Amino acid sequence: MHYSYIPCLSIAGFDPSGGAGIAADIKTFSALGCYASAAITAITSQSTRGVYAMQPLPAEWISRQVLPVVEDLPPAALKIGMTCNREIIRSIAEILRAHPVPFVVLDPVMISSSGHPLMEEDAMKCLTDELLPLCHLVTPNLHELHRLTGQADPVAAAQLLIRRHGARQVLIKGGHREGIPEDILVSEDGEISFTGERITTRNDHGTGCTLSAAIAAYVARGEALPAAIGQAKKFVGQALKAGATIHIGNGHGPLNHFFDPLPLLIKEKL
Ligand code: PLP
User: Fold this and answer.
1) Is the C-alpha dihedral spanning 217, 222, 223, 224 positive or negative?
2) Probe target for ligand 1 pocket from 11, 14, 15, 22, with the most ligand atoms within 8 Å of CB
3) Phi, psi of 216 (to 5 degrees)
4) pTM for the full predicted model
5) Ligand 1 pocket check: which of 112, 119, 173, 255 to mutate, most ligand atoms within 8 Å of Cβ?
6) Strands 50-56 and 35-47: what pairing?
7) Of the candidates 46, 56, 58, 66, the residue with the CA atom closest to the CA atom of residue 13
8) Which of ligand 1's atoms lies nearest the C-alpha of 204?
9) What's the CA-to-centroid distance between 114 and ligand 1, angstroms?
10) pLDDT digits (tens, 9 = 90+) for 184-239
11) Residues with Cβ < 8 Å from 91, sequence gap 6 or more?
């Protein structure tokens, strides 16, 4: 009998403390029943206490890692995290043009919560000009949205990314309405608002990485984008709650992705 699985790929940075970047993505894909593959853009020196340094890989090592994977186990969805510099961004764009992936989500990581830069200053324009148009969804927080567009109003900034830079859909993370956390999905068709309860925990390292990876996993599993975002937010909330009382490291600990892990989802091939 032939079976098919649900393959998800992450192209992102490596956090040796296991909380953010590729580690968060692999845990998320796996907990949601998808098969995880991953390619590293940069290694970092960090712990739960903060990021100390980052070292991007030579750009040719992006295609050396990704091409054999996309040719052998083509992903149903791709999550792109930390892209670091222009050379790596161009290398990812070139791969995507040659090997289109059905769903690509870009988390435009720029700076760690502890304040360490994770992207070179001059890479911002390259990201919007060359990578954004190849992605189906971009998930900036308010700071990243402002840096990408120079526009103060988040919805206007998201619309600018769509009109001027060819983004397809923008999920604005972390807007607030009367104290209720609100994410807004902006597309040419309008806006959809996602509200959720505020979860206060020190163990929030890798929350953004987990959200974009979970969206990729749910889309790969067959959900339409708005439903995938809703379910991904629920997964992040549950993983934050499940990790809130666990003491891992002495700073901002990770989420607990494995509060209710699925086995690898297998679909019988027709
Ligand atoms: N390290 C890597 C590899 C990341 O991708 C990220 C964020 O995406 C971070 C660190 C920062 O994570 P946080 O802002 O949760 O500290």
Assistant:
1) positive
2) 15
3) -60, -45
4) 0.96
5) 112
6) antiparallel
7) 56
8) 15
9) 9
10) 999 999 999 999 888 989 999 999 999 999 999 999 999 999 999 999 999 999 99
11) 59, 60, 62, 63
